[in-house]
């Protein structure tokens, strides 16, 4: 298993290009199941999760042509309406094939995703929504079996805001008969990017970017070309990195209009930023100030940035308080940061962080994607050497992170 060895204390200086967003690319690739036409996608990030979803899609008979950041899909030969446990168990987003397969072919068999490190993450809302659209669904032997003659539009109000739930139901509704209204829809920019692609494919969707999506079903969708939106979480992760190490970086190929409160919080902790339309120049020359926040759905503070901001808070000039409201177990990085000398205590879903003067390198273990990124940040700010084990989590969702960091002066080496 690969590890990352990081020698801390190096300031970051230079340019970093941001890749396409993982959480937009995954649903968008699944949209290839909705049409017999060609879907030509660019700005697709080079990630392990992208490879996994492409394997799942290829198993259905979807033709996949993958060349670096370009992917072309053709869905004219799909003949297996199934996603197997072997692949689904490695990535929960695989559930995104359920809505499209069912809507286009009237049938799907998809493994029920298991638990995961950050929480139980059930998919009951996906199932409830598809049932409201007329699907018959049963669960047997760990598989979801879904069937319908033709999905029929309905009004669906999910019990909570769910990102992939909204995406699954949105994709299904594009081919349902009549009107579907999705109330309490997720407003994340990645949902909007999927909706924009579906419109290019011929879908009729109103309310894009709001919590009420109104979809008029159409008989079929056609091929389209689309560039995946830039990854706001990747961009904010690098901004946290420079806030922790000090330095001067310029991030490019970003979309600064879709940043949530993360940019305000970065300013609050002392990062000096010049924000252009597609770039951010960020300078940090002082010890970070502590920032407190609660994670919520977009446009609130993203749960996917909680761990990285906590890493900065560990060396801030005071105390802070971080509350996680989206996932019930997303503090696995806390014990690892404490191994580096941080002073963090948790009480339920709140962490109390007392900033320390310095962190000191130690062996630590990555537990999930964003926890891995937060440990990379903490290690770069620490004195001495840190070795991060189980770094495969990082490869799932960050496009060549260590190469991008090395290019701006970090001392990061992968140990095979
Ligand atoms: N939930 C249910 N039932 C459902 C669906 C969700 O109880 O049917 C609960 C979840 O357990 C959770 C909350 O609702 O407590 C929100 O979960 P959501 O469905 O929004 O999460 P997701 O769609 O599974 C996506 C991202 C996550 C990101 C969350 C929240 C993708 C592929 N994944 O997950 O990304 O944290 O939304 O913004 O889009 C990551 O990139 O590291 C990551 C985990």
UniProtKB/TrEMBL annotation:
This protein's record includes keyword Cell wall biogenesis/degradation: yes
Keywords of this entry: Cell cycle, Cell division, Cell shape, Cell wall biogenesis/degradation, Cytoplasm, Peptidoglycan synthesis, Pyruvate, Transferase
Principal subcellular localisation of the protein: cytoplasm
GO molecular function: UDP-N-acetylglucosamine 1-carboxyvinyltransferase activity
Binding-site residues, UDP-N-acetyl-alpha-D-glucosamine: 92, 121-125, 304, 326
Record-listed phosphoenolpyruvate binding positions: 22-23
Positions carrying 2-(S-cysteinyl)pyruvic acid O-phosphothioketal: 116
Enzyme class label: transferase
Catalysed reaction equations from the record: phosphoenolpyruvate + UDP-N-acetyl-alpha-D-glucosamine = UDP-N-acetyl-3-O-(1-carboxyvinyl)-alpha-D-glucosamine + phosphate
Functional summary from the UniProt entry: Cell wall formation. Adds enolpyruvyl to UDP-N-acetylglucosamine.
PANTHER family: UDP-N-ACETYLGLUCOSAMINE 1-CARBOXYVINYLTRANSFERASE
Similarity section: Belongs to the EPSP synthase family. MurA subfamily.
Protein name: UDP-N-acetylglucosamine 1-carboxyvinyltransferase
């Amino acid at each position: 298993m690969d590890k990352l060895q990081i020698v801390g204390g190096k300031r970051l200086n230079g340019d970093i290009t941001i890749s396409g967003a993982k959480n937009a690319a995954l649903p968008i690739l699944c949209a290839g199941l909705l049409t017999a036409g060609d879907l030509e996608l660019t700005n697709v990030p080079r990630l392990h999760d992208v490879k996994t979803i492409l394997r799942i899609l290829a198993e259905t008979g979807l033709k996949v042509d993958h060349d670096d950041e370009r992917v072309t899909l053709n869905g004219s030969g799909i003949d297996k309406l199934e996603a197997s446990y072997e692949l689904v168990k490695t990535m929960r987003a695989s559930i995104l094939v359920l809505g499209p397969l069912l809507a286009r072919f009237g049938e799907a068999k998809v493994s029920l995703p298991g638990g995961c490190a950050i929480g139980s993450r059930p998919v009951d809302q996906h199932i409830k929504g598809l049932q409201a659209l007329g699907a018959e669904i049963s669960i047997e032997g760990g598989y979801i079996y879904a069937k319908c003659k033709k999905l029929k539009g309905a009004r669906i109000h999910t019990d909570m805001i769910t990102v992939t739930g909204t995406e699954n139901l949105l994709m299904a509704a594009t081919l349902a008969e009549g009107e579907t209204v999705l109330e309490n829809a997720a407003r994340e920019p990645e949902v909007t990017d999927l909706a924009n692609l579906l419109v290019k494919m011929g879908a009729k969707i109103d309310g894009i970017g709001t919590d009420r999506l109104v979809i008029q079903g159409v008989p079929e969708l056609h091929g389209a070309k689309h560039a995946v939106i830039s990854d706001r979480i990747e961009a904010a992760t690098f901004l946290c990195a420079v806030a922790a190490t000090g330095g001067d970086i310029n991030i490019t190929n970003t979309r600064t209009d879709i940043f949530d409160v993360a940019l305000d919080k970065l300013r609050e902790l002392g990062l000096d930023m010049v924000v252009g339309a597609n770039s951010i120049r960020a300078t940090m020359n002082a010890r970070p100030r502590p920032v407190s926040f609660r994670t919520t759905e977009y446009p609130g503070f993203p749960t996917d940035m909680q761990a990285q901001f906590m890493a900065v808070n560990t060396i801030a000039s005071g105390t802070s308080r971080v509350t996680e409201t989206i996932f019930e177990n997303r503090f696995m990085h806390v014990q690892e940061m404490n191994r580096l000398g941080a002073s963090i205590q948790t009480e339920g879903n709140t962490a109390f962080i007392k900033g320390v003067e310095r962190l000191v390198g130690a062996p630590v273990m990555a537990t999930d994607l964003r926890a891995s990124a937060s440990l990379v940040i903490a290690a770069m700010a620490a004195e001495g050497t840190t070795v991060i084990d189980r770094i495969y989590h990082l490869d799932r969702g960050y496009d060549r992170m260590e190469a991008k960091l090395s290019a701006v002066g970090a001392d990061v080496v992968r140990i095979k």
